[in-house]
């Protein structure tokens, strides 16, 4: 019981990771995987979660042991390593939040039948509201509010998954011939699914910074074992919810011939409709709120993370800049992220697809390098020998690096050839 209480008190980085990851990669890609290809897609989903696990775990391991951020770990390896991470962060700064906020605004309009305001205006309202929440509430508010969001989402998904399992596959699905997985369209879908499952590798730096904030809120520093247990709980929840979404898509849409929208916003609305079919129309509002809360929490966690990591990178690159160390620096960075991404939406809205494609390309291609950097950081002199990853985790890490390298090479070939 004492151990459980300590684990609950340590809840934070793993919970935020789950909230950040359970966005479009789960709500859209996992459901679509089950709907188009059936249960077989559980293999790439679990494979991606297993092979990428060490890279995110190393963020928590490094911070818990050293009480430094993983960004500082990159700097200790050499400034060139930090510049690589800075480049990826720069690309994320101009793309990730803009895309997330647009999808969330569109989902809000679709779910709650808002016609009096456009997606741009709603995005602006979301930027203002979330920025104020992050500046006023800070890390502790973010952590506490997400406990409620994740709880609601988990209950909604658990109930829906149980109902669709009880009902079983749709009639005719047994004889349905699934689309070819290993043709160009199938491979591209696999790349998107596995590339963003559970999320991009650069988020390991985000997890590390949440770990730093969590340490500041605790009276007693948690042991490495406890910190990893907390993260593992969040990571397991992330993978489990991906499987839930896959099952819902498989048992409700696979074999029906339903045309699935290519738009994340419209598809998310289709998913909500699936939920209400299996639970009842009375549950529409409950499920709509849960779906919107999913994307809202993803916006909030990503906004917080990118603001923190951008500030940390700038601090390490320009240590003599006093303004970067001021108590208002985080608030300023949150507002900067809001303004920059609002301008991206306003000026490049029609080309958002191209911007996201650029971010995806950079993220996928540099993922194996980031994975290797994370391994190098936790195997370096900053970490005492007893706290370094054991041989089994090291082997899994090298497997993940090989997987990410092959993944990146094939992605480059698909895009550039």
UniProtKB/TrEMBL annotation:
Keywords on record: Membrane, Transmembrane, Transmembrane helix
Gene Ontology cellular-component terms listed: membrane
Bilayer topology annotation: Multi-pass membrane protein
MF annotations from Gene Ontology: metal ion transmembrane transporter activity
InterPro entries referenced in this protein's UniProt entry, alphabetically: NRAMP_fam
Transmembrane intervals: 40-60, 81-108, 114-136, 148-165, 185-212, 233-253, 282-302, 329-349, 355-375, 395-416
Cellular compartments annotated: Membrane
Protein name from the UniProt record: Divalent metal cation transporter
Organism whose genome encodes this protein: Flagellimonas alvinocaridis
